[in-house]
């Protein structure tokens, strides 16, 4: 079975691994520097990948990126505001060829996670599904008739976090108004806390994130409950929009906060009550591959072009 080097570029760290089928044979994480430059991370990433390939034969690299990718050129064309903006000027194909002597494929991170879960995880034997990834931002992807949805420019289905769910909502980093991501993501948490009308234990957290919100909500902190419920409602609304857009029978929720006990049942209840579709309402599932989902998407991604 062919092996691949897989890279998943996240907001705070970069995960890389040598994968073979459903097996992660070696896995490492690199902390992203404060500069927000992907070029500055390449020497460290190259060194890690060079060490990994010594443990087993590999035939290519698959890189999951949190931005938009031109399928014709394989280059990054747009990035999250203020993060990895230099990626649009990088020739990843030349980098992989010159540094690793390997070919490379780039894919949007949410779609890579969907590929991994479809082949090896919670979506095995499912043909119509949407993925909602909850974390620093909100990612998405869709599967219709067993095929990954890509669209004319390759961007179809991956901007679920930037669907408008509040017409009078805040301005998102993307420039749109009322995006799900602007209302319920890690980067939006400080603004949600600042808007609370009364003091909350969240105000005493030095670097508040979604985990802190859910943990404090379970203690009965009123402010944390308000923020938690806003996030749950935003995620459920985004999930329902994806169901209606892509006629999905399954909603897969991934990302660190997806493990919280409240998340999947809340979204399931919302979808059950509000989905307009024939037959049984779509089932909401939690991803089973965890942080390895996008890495394990390397095999099906490469198989799709071979």
UniProtKB/TrEMBL annotation:
The keyword Metal-binding does not apply. GO terms for molecular function: N-acylmannosamine kinase activity; UDP-N-acetylglucosamine 2-epimerase activity. It comes from the Bacteria. Keywords: Kinase, Transferase. Belongs to the ROK (NagC/XylR) family. PANTHER family: BIFUNCTIONAL UDP-N-ACETYLGLUCOSAMINE 2-EPIMERASE_N-ACETYLMANNOSAMINE KINASE, ROK (REPRESSOR, ORF, KINASE) FAMILY. This is Glucokinase. It comes from Sphingomonas gellani.
